[in-house]
Each structure stands twice: as structure tokens, then as C-alpha cells.
Amino acid sequence: MKNRLEIAKELLSDTGFIAITIDHIELFYLGTLADEVFGRKNRIGIITIVNQARGRWMDKNFSASNEFMLVYSKEEGTNMKKRKKNLI
């Protein structure tokens, strides 16, 4: 996974950012890798995404109802608010 993050960083423009979704099982591992590759200071945030309010029926313990999105910028000081709308 680390090599994929390194390639993704190389492909980003200097003002670019990356958003990665992950479940709670791998959240801390991926966050540690992303901090190493992009730099902790470039972590813009962690967003909670509710995907099923009742949880997943197949979980044995807690019913997971959400995933997480890790957002990192390539360079320190990237301002996401200045992004143009309708880029797609």
C-alpha cells in the first residue's frame, strides 16, 4: 500500500489533494502510512461517512455503520476552498 501512496503523491499537482476511503479495521494503519508519505502536517482531515445507519448485519460485535475518508494535500498550505466547482 505504501508504494501506491507514493505513486499517488507523485501524480498529484503541487496544489493537489487525495481523498481515500477506508473502514475502521484498517483506518489507523492507513493513516500511519499516509502520514509517513504525505506528512502529518499535510493531513487536511478525517471525514466520517455514514453508509448504513443500522449497521452491517454480518458484523459479529459492533455493527459498523460508517467508513472514513482520509484527506491529504501534497504540499503544506493547500487551500481546498479555492477549488473551482464543476471540475468533472
Automatic annotation (TrEMBL):
Keywords: Methyltransferase, Transferase
Molecular function GO terms recorded: DNA binding; N-methyltransferase activity
Pfam families noted in UniProt: N6_N4_Mtase
Keyword flag Acetylation: no
Mitochondrion as UniProt keyword: no
Residue intervals of the DNA methylase N-4/N-6 domain: 1-78
InterPro entries: DNA_methylase_N4/N6 (IPR002941), SAM-dependent_MTases_sf (IPR029063)
GO BP, sorted A to Z: methylation
Protein name stated in the entry: DNA methylase N-4/N-6 domain-containing protein
